[in-house]
Amino acid sequence: MSFRRLVVPAFLAMAIPAWAHCGHCGVGESKGGGAKTGHAHDHSHAHAELGKPAPDFTLTDASGKEHKLSDMLGKVVVLEWTNHKCPFVNRHHDSGLIAKTPAKFEGKNVTWFAIDSSQTCEKDRENISAWAKKRNLSYPVLLDAEGTVGHLYNAKTTPHIFIVDQKGILAYMGAPDDDGDGTKDNPRNYIEETVTSLLAGSTVATARTKSYGCSVKYKK
Fold this sequence. Notes:
Blueprint: H1 10-15, E1 39-41, E2 56-61, E3 66-68, E4 76-81, H2 87-94, H3 97-104, E5 110-116, H4 125-134, E6 141-143, H5 148-153, E7 157-158, E8 160-164, E9 170-174, H6 190-200, E10 214-215
Parallel strand pairs: 4-5, 5-6
Antiparallel strand pairs: 1-2, 2-3, 2-6, 4-8, 7-10, 8-9
């Protein structure tokens, strides 16, 4: 299996339990019942790296269903850091690029997960579920209130996109597009470009961009 597993040192394991109970927006990198959450394993590096196996994790979605990244081996996986209160996220989901892109790969070997690493996400699960239903999300919102997975991937903003290839290798990290201000008629869709290249077995033209949006509201 291509996914690495994180061994958490004993002194950290006490502070970040495998079983845990899982905000509002600020400025990101640029303007413009009990649940199993944040359970991540890696035998070597502490953070995700481009061109390296994406660290495995298990998270529970807002409806209580468990999802494990390594179960998606063989598929392209889009990880979308989100916060239902963030105006950048809502712009993308109301009528923007993120609202339209998943449907372009419907029926293809692609899986999409939204991840909420806000410290309040567990207590906010009903509002998150209502938000996802209103926008007809075709994929789950995973809850990471301890911030374990968010820190593992160094997710800084909402949105922040990470794309894993069919072999479990991290192939892209950064913004969904090149339109942080939301003013372009035809922004460059980095998600579509990356996924299309991976499905075709081609080299990803742009593997890293600077994310933008609200800062992730991690647990202090």
